[in-house]
């Protein structure tokens, strides 16, 4: 960061950077779970929990106003390939150059990790190689399951591949079909677009690329720059809000989860958007989202960036309370289930349906299906009880509950993806190793007397034989309903839904299911169905008898929508997920969305959305709580106040200060609050009954909340002045404060603390009245910068504030030391280091740096060619900085002596390519290296931005051993690293000896010449800094530590006499600066 120096009457003025630290830190560890690492936005604790602060926050524009027309969409769509596809195609092109036979690239497959088997059957485990008959299949006959299932009352096309093309996105597979329904809209979401519909099927907004939601984030933020998919949309019925997310996978080496929460209940309006860095340089695949009163819970299958290793399952939970208020600091808490079970995967969070909240204190559970074929001890469900703590993340807990056994089932599946037959197309992928979206919860009782019901589903083999191929494999859907009391789960009902004859070769496959319950506990399941003589149709089936252990979907099944085409792409990818939801208006109407084909082709997929209802369903009972939130001081309405009711209900007030929330009948405690400077007010418990309205009004009392304004360097003791703070220098800095709260301060006093590089601070300063929302108030403090500081490191100046008896907390500033010096270069010139082929650990090349006197102000990395020879694209060119037959395989990581590291080049585009003179500079306005591709015969040369900012090294001590790691992460190619340099610009500081100081002393006398006791004497320097002393019983006073070379004003205040102030230029000690009364 650069600082400007201003001259004013020979006083150097410098505006310094400020960083606000929250008054109540939520990053504290505990005695048993201390903080073990802080890395940027992530704080890790000893129990494996991490708190992740958002990388960026913004408020989007209204979705309905976003343009759906993309210039040159057809051309962009034709050119579109994902990053992984581009690398693979480049690889194939190179193989062709080498004489290999090119293979067909599945250029429309956007995310291959989703199809990787998270759980694999073990030889001999479970059913082994033998036959197995699912005991629940027999229930699915005509007697137990008559064809009474209601057909849809409405269906329409949801988001599709055609919508992708309209946004300049080429064909992608799979679609990742999902959606949800709110009070007035249905939101359809797929890879890589979303589309919003009115409930009659007409379009209300879109189609739009999902990344369009994040366009208000900074330009370089991955959630804005990358539209990578795996989207999930859920509706929060307790708050009437929408939650939309997807991942961003730059993989260099970090990846991100992108989260959007609607500002209101209208999904066509604006969204609060956050970007979160996923921890541990992990690829956060297959995210799934569940709404629970305490948070928005997300589960992931974790892979390394290369996609070559499964790293278990992870959980992220977003602070729902903060997210609903649009708080930029809304954090997520992460835990890694891999630390408990590295083989766990395909987990789903609980997603709440309806308006009857779970009982108070019931924690979120994450569900995983287990099978003895995977080596698990049981065919059943494992639950992980997850309690995130956003205030003290180290206190978050993850508890493994006992496995709950289901009736035995067959989890075996043939190797490879193509295990589902369809008529007229290529085989499809069942992804049968995981539960299917969603794992739905509904309270079928009341909050006081709950009936906690959970439903889920997953595909199983029903062929009765060992499925060694698609011809011996047939999928049915194992569905289940469980009831929960405290932390104990019991099976209420379960079944295996099949259709027609059991025959692996000719039978029908049911798979890619979604499940939910309506207000009466009726179950509906939607799924894809196909066979060798049937295209992949969309079917629905259901249960309405709702008795324990029925074992059957007694309504049978019905056609939801018939396919008119088949998928011919040999990638086999299908769906990845679908979504069954329930309309919050009546809590009876089911809405389902699933993939289908309207015509045969490689990947011209469509999705269908529709609704149906059981005529017997009883609509949910509802009541209303409304009111107005006002200022206690004025009675005026408060906009954007948050109103919460028992169970997780929430509404945000509008400009009139009013709110209205729909709840289930019951007794509620309602409270009102507003972030940023207001107390919380609560109403007495109120009871509402079906069809009636109760009112709860609140007034909120404002409190002052202080925040940093500018910090300005006023004077410095080291001469000549350099406009910066130097270690050992005595400086005066003006610290500004603003009040962002809801009330003025009355008599605020700030005290500069002797911490963070501040020593010998001057006394407290009176800030007085700081008006809420008004201008900043500044006061001067003098202190000495710690002489032990490394030049260029930051001083953390902390001012503690007290307003009367009220502690207003601390405000913290970050003050740089030193000025920018001249750059120096340290080079590695050989010998050449061979880069081992297909060894992800790579090879390390050390480089020692010494003699740099200050911390890093700026660092650039340079690939150096041999100036005495010709650097070109020839194989093993000895003049090149780096030669390699496929630069797209390579990852370059630079690590500083203190362990700080950055991946500076990450598998960039290109085929055979040597690197000549190339500078990586992240603040020179150069194009990103990752955006520059090349072809055979070219070399890389010029100035570029690195794949990750080199600014991560700013402020560290550069002296010591740096390490360049070069890794080849794929096979066949070879090369060597030969030369490189670090161009380091340090901070430089003045050699600042402590300022010379002396004493100033004297006597205050009366008109009679006698000493005046308890007179107040002040000494003020040229910058306005004042010190006070009181005269002794004989009238003497003394000031020590008065700076030499400055002009000071000494004044006396007495109740009996008047004294004229004296201005002195201090050149040495003054022993007799005496005062007599003015005649």
Description:
- The chain is mainly beta and 1079 residues long.
- It has five domains: 6-23 and 705-820, Sandwich (Immunoglobulin-like); 114-612, 7 Propeller (Methylamine Dehydrogenase, Chain H), CATH 2.130.10; 623-699, Sandwich (Immunoglobulin-like), CATH 2.60.40; 824-988, Galactose-binding domain-like (Jelly Rolls, Sandwich), CATH 2.60.120; 997-1065, Sandwich (Immunoglobulin-like), CATH 2.60.40.10.
- It contains five helices and 72 strands.
- The strands form 16 sheets. Strands 20, 21, 22, 23, 24, 25, 26, 27 and 28 form a nine-stranded mixed β-sheet that branches. The chain has a seven-stranded antiparallel β-sheet with strand order 3-4-5-19-18-17-16.
- The longest helix has 15 residues, at 83-97.
Percent of residues in helices comes to: under 10%
Uncertain segments of ≥5 residues (pLDDT<50)?
1-28, 81-108
Number of domains: 5
Beta strand %: 35-45%
Whole-Å distance between the termini?
Answer: 58 Å
Tell me which CATH architecture of the largest domain applies here.
Answer: 7 Propeller
Shape estimate: globular
Tell me the number of strands.
72
CATH class of the largest domain: Mainly Beta
Radius of gyration, in Å, reads 34 Å
Number of helices: 5
